[in-house]
UniProtKB/TrEMBL annotation:
Transmembrane segments: 6-25, 54-76, 82-99, 111-132, 138-158, 165-182
Organism phylogeny: Bacteria, Pseudomonadati, Pseudomonadota, Alphaproteobacteria, Rhodospirillales
Domain of life of the native organism: Bacteria
Protein name: Glycerol-3-phosphate acyltransferase
Species in which this protein is naturally found: Thalassospira profundimaris
Keyword Transmembrane belongs to the record: yes
Keywords: Acyltransferase, Cell membrane, Lipid biosynthesis, Lipid metabolism, Membrane, Phospholipid biosynthesis, Phospholipid metabolism, Transferase, Transmembrane, Transmembrane helix
EC number: 2.3.1.275
Protein family: Belongs to the PlsY family.
Pfam families: G3P_acyltransf
InterPro entries, A to Z: G3P_acylTferase_PlsY
Any GO BP: phospholipid biosynthetic process
GO molecular function, one term: acyl-phosphate glycerol-3-phosphate acyltransferase activity
Main subcellular location of this protein, as a coarse class: membrane
Catalytically driven reaction(s): an acyl phosphate + sn-glycerol 3-phosphate = a 1-acyl-sn-glycero-3-phosphate + phosphate
Length: 209
């Protein structure tokens, strides 16, 4: 059991560390996405290139790697291994070994993982993000609220404590990764979806998703 958990964690991390945003933008001839906007390798920053298709593909890739890791190891070894693999995929996205442990903030990968572990939790998180994004048009705020909704849905709607505690763990690390965004939200300075940041903010802002 311990060995299978270790294998699931390592493989999940490696799957999560695939930088789809960086790979896709380079293949499209846009150069290094880390030198654009916030420096993020996720879909939010890819959208700042003006290439909506690439941003969508990045979103699917980032969400898909978390879902794939969780589903694969659930099928191969069991639910607990799937949970560990999915959680590790989020860590891999945020701290990829290939990019000197400087990745994104894990929102899309978290949503994919949550949906694979418990579809009710994933659906509630995704719908919460969508509704908040339509109302406020601020990606980080939508993500932060969705991270709160996810474990609540697992505990009180799906009655799945294992998924709920995974949701709590991922919510904590995603909120921690968004500390700079939270500061800008409190100051009313957080840019809206598709809006380019001021150069001073681009130089200092960490990745967003």
């Amino acid at each position: 059991m311990l060995m299978s958990l270790q294998i699931a964690t390592v493989c999940g991390y490696l799957l999560g560390s695939i930088p789809f945003g960086l790979v896709l933008t380079r293949m499209a001839g846009l150069g290094d996405i880390r030198k654009i906007g916030s420096g993020n390798i996720g879909a939010t920053n890819v959208l700042r290139t003006g290439r909506k298709g690439l941003a969508f593909m990045t979103l699917i890739g980032d969400a898909g790697k978390g879902a794939f890791a969780a589903l694969l190891f659930t099928h191969l070894a069991g639910v607990e291994q799937g949970i560990f693999a999915g959680g590790a995929a989020v860590i891999g996205h945020m701290f990829p070994i290939w990019l000197r442990f400087k990745g994104g903030k894990g929102v899309a990968t978290t949503l994919g993982t949550l949906a694979a572990v418990n579809w009710i939790m994933g659906l509630c998180a995704a719908l919460t993000w969508l509704v908040m994004a339509l109302i406020f048009r601020i990606s980080s705020l939508s993500a932060l609220i969705a991270m709160i909704a996810a474990p609540l849905a697992a505990f009180f709607i799906a009655n799945d404590p294992g998924a709920g505690w995974l949701g709590v763990f991922l919510a904590v690390i995603v909120w921690a990764a968004h500390h700079a965004n939270i500061g800008r939200l409190l100051r009313g300075e957080e840019p809206k979806i598709g809006q380019k940041k001021k150069q001073s903010e681009e130089d200092s802002a960490p990745p967003e998703n």
